[in-house]
Design a protein that fits this description.
The structure holds 2 protein chains of 2 kinds. Chain A is built from 22 helices and 15 strands. By secondary structure, chain A is an alpha/beta fold. In chain A, strand 14, helix 20 and strand 15 form a beta-alpha-beta unit. Chain A is globular, with a radius of gyration of 25 Å. Chain B contains 4 helices and 4 strands. Helices cover 36% and strands 20% of the residues of chain B. Chain B has a 4-stranded mixed β-sheet with strand order 2-1-3-4, with helices on one face. The radius of gyration of chain B is 13 Å and the shape is elongated. Classes of the chains: A alpha/beta, B alpha+beta. At the A-B interface, helix 1 and helix 17 of A face helix 1 of B. Bound molecules: FE2/S2 (inorganic) cluster. The site of FE2/S2 (inorganic) cluster has 12 residues of chain B, from helix 1. Chain B: It comes from Candidatus Termititenax persephonae. Chain B: This is Thioredoxin.
């Protein structure tokens, strides 16, 4: 379940930021964002006082400007930061940034013996603890957290379920152990371990984790009349209550000179991946994994080198689409429109893509610029994408595409799915890599977000509605099979 | 009895500010027969700077509801049904 209050707050800031960008004095209007959002005498919905509210909003604005909140020296005015962000020519390396002052609100993970403790005679908890952290005081079990190693054996031992482990949502959601509270209680992201899946950003109840937005960089190029092209992830077609053609018009209204569906490149991905699978099976390899999920590719690079031999060499739909766009318009700026943050590093590495904007940032642009896609005329795409390519962003969609592009007997391919990366599915993947085979099938589709890219960390729509819309859009197109 | 009319705005601002979660709004069984839900385009309640922040908007029998959320909508409907019952008694 997404946390609407937090999404709203972050989007509100983006809208203010965009309005500031198009105002007569960008830097000054940015400086005023915390004051405009919490004017004198206004209610204080979240924090202790209006000053803290504004301070937190100021920090969040930094992320909107594309800056790392951690690097803020607190003495520099937002206006200075705004002016600086207009000057930069390079994209940030890592997409995520943590707002420390929001983060302090949540307690470190520890083992807690609750009032449900019945003062029982058995004291299984004390017996279960290998570290002597639990003692009985006047019949009641008491835990010494300094001695506790959080092994959780006492939790299992207690017959009353009276012992609980409090969790830190971000730590709990992170599949790779890349985020943890430091000794000051602030969440820190270890960028060496982080795969930018964005799970922490989605679950944090304080909204402490932000992506460093490239809005300003893109708007600057649009405003200075450079030719800016949008490469839209297939999941975008399920994000606004309008048709694909209307969405196309809306993007043009924002200022994109041309729009490519990344589904176009997905057709190539499907075909190349089918060939790759054929060759691998002929060589006697037991299975192959898909290669289009950016978080998974980061995972393989940083945490699972042993799975590398099983990952398809096929490029991502974005890579193929960006190459097409670049060839046709060498002078243009290519912007990937993404449901996902793990694409940041991919975009940085791909010389055919210049920037990335999230669906949320596109949503904020539509709000700020008063664009109503559903009221716009239809604008067709130059390339009509295939059914399966449109379905790429749904769990199962990539495997379906490979099957549609498969030229042999369909039963030769046995698809299996990792639908959502978590600690358990990571362990499963590790086991497949180690054994060199996957009992569940020979084509393993991996999507780090549950439900697929349509449920990525930066989407606008609910998973259910997005899935239905994407399925409908896909059903209107010809199959890859008939286009072969 | 005429049904209570619920209009939920799926204009850009409302949608982006949370109305996406109001699509396929599920009402409690007891209300369903008494309510007619429709999804509408921008109600033009959002178009200035302070007001966009109060989105999403809904209209229930003509009454504007800001920061519309399922609970808020259901509460308002329940109240209206009560009021009507009261008035006809
Ligand atoms: S979008 Fe709902 S009132 Fe304008």
């Amino acid at each position: 379940m997404r946390q609407i209050e937090i999404q709203k707050l972050k989007r509100e800031i983006l809208v203010y930021l965009i309005k500031a960008f198009y105002s007569a004095d960008f830097a000054e209007q940015v400086r005023l964002i915390p004051y405009d959002m919490r004017p004198k005498g206004s209610a204080v919905p979240f924090r202790c006082c209006i000053h803290k509210e504004r301070a937190v909003l100021r920090s969040r604005t930094l992320a909107g400007l594309g800056l790392a909140i951690e690097d803020d020296n607190e003495r520099t005015e937002l206006s200075i930061y705004a002016a600086q962000s207009l000057q930069r020519t390079k994209n940030a390396e890592h997409p995520l940034t943590v707002l420390g002052s929001a983060c302090q609100g949540c307690a470190e993970s520890f083992i807690h013996i609750t009032d449900l403790c019945q003062n029982c005679v058995a004291k299984s908890c004390i017996n279960s603890c290998k570290f002597g952290a639990i003692t009985a005081t006047r019949g009641r079990a008491v835990i010494n957290n300094a001695q506790c190693k959080k092994c959780c054996l006492c939790i299992k031992a207690c017959p009353y379920q009276a012992i609980v482990k409090t969790i830190v949502p971000c730590e709990n959601a992170c599949p790779t152990g890349a985020i943890a509270k430091d000794t000051n209680g602030l969440a820190r992201i270890d960028t060496a371990k982080c795969i930018a899946c964005g799970h922490c950003l989605v679950v944090c109840p304080f909204g402490a984790i932000h992506n460093k937005s490239q809005l300003i960089d893109v708007l600057k190029k649009i405003k200075t009349r450079q030719k800016v092209i949008a490469l839209i992830a297939p999941a975008l077609l399920g994000q606004m209550p309008c048709t694909a053609g209307q969405l196309h018009s809306a993007l043009q209204k924002i200022g994109f000179a041309q729009v490519y569906e990344v589904a176009q490149g997905a057709e190539t991905t499907a075909r190349v991946e089918a060939k790759d699978l054929r060759q691998r099976l002929q060589k006697g390899l037991a299975f192959m994994t898909t290669s289009c999920c950016a978080a998974y590719n980061e995972l393989a690079r940083k945490h699972l080198p042993e799975i590398k031999p099983f990952v398809s060499d096929t490029k991502t739909p974005l890579a193929y689409t960006a190459a097409i766009a670049r060839r046709a318009n060498p002078e243009a700026v290519n912007v990937f429109i993404s449901p996902c943050l793990a694409k940041y590093p991919e975009v940085n590495q791909d010389s055919n893509v210049d920037h990335i904007l999230t669906f949320e940032e596109i949503g904020a642009l539509l709000v700020a610029l008063n664009i109503e896609p559903a009221e716009l005329p239809e604008e067709n795409f130059a390339h009509v994408s295939a059914r399966e390519a449109r379905g790429f962003p749904l769990s199962g969609g990539v495997a379906k595409s490979v099957l549609a592009a498969w030229d042999g007997a369909p039963q030769e391919v046995t698809p299996a799915f990792i639908n959502g990366l978590n600690k358990a599915s990571l362990a499963e993947l590790r086991a497949y890599a180690k054994q060199g085979r996957c009992a569940r099938g020979n084509l393993l589709e991996i999507m780090c977000c549950l439900g697929g890219c349509a449920n990525g960390p930066a989407v606008l729509n609910t998973e259910k509605a997005a899935t239905a819309q994407i399925e409908k859009y896909a059903s209107e197109a010809e199959s890859l099979q008939s286009l072969r | 009895m005429r049904p209570i009319e619920v209009e939920i705005c799926l204009g850009t601002t409302c949608f982006v500010m949370g109305a996406s979660a109001l699509q396929n709004l599920q009402l409690p069984e007891s209300l369903r027969a008494k309510v007619k839900i429709s999804y509408v385009r921008c109600l033009h309640l959002c178009k200035n700077m302070d007001k966009f922040r109060k989105a999403p908007y809904a209209r229930i029998d003509g009454e504007v509801i800001d920061e519309a959320a399922p609970e808020k909508i259901i509460q308002n409907i329940t109240q209206k049904i009560k009021d009507i019952a009261h008035a006809t008694n």
